[in-house]
């Protein structure tokens, strides 16, 4: 797929993608369980189920033998407030909603033109699962723009990302939105990290391009790889914001990819050399 900016990022030039049939969905080449062919025609790349979804579904399942274990299934009695960025078909987040009680909230977000797809997914899920699970809402949220549409549901305890790191021109707005969603109400004074937990599922498609996102992301967030999944090319990270000082200010969209003052990073971070080249995943 092209990485050049386009009027609608869900319809890049020369779009040519086919539905992805994940194991366990009862989908066959002749019977698409998620209506992807029609959704791709209407919503572009947002209508497809992407490869990292299977790994994220596994992680968002109680009892999965992965390390670190998913914190959403711990002993905490506080309600969970989960937001997903770029939800599209929202398979993983709706799977999660089925595992959570009614006191928890899951908010699906995407571009305004894609919200009807999220709403259709919620309707199909609700009809199938009934009303004894987490409450689920869909809201428009364009990366890099104001997050007012979701403020009523915060502060969030978790943020989900599934296969969002692909177009380089979208790295700055994605990173800016992540920072705004995780901004502290006051300057943290204890611990190395703070704020909502980000659960990021990702499959590399061009590490030479993606390195710039992760190098910038690592200046703001600690990344902990999830081990034990036996995935081929997919990866999951659990991430939290590095502690900041009173010098910290939320950077502008133009500045967000560059190092910013006031972030207390606890280790040197170089994605390819420090993490991928030397990490034993299994």
UniProtKB/TrEMBL annotation:
GO terms for cellular component: cytosol; protein-containing complex. One of its GO terms (molecular function) is S-adenosylmethionine-dependent methyltransferase activity. Pfam families: Methyltransf_16. It comes from the Eukaryota. InterPro entries: Methyltransf_16 (IPR019410), SAM-dependent_MTases_sf (IPR029063). It comes from Vanrija humicola (Yeast). This is Uncharacterized protein.
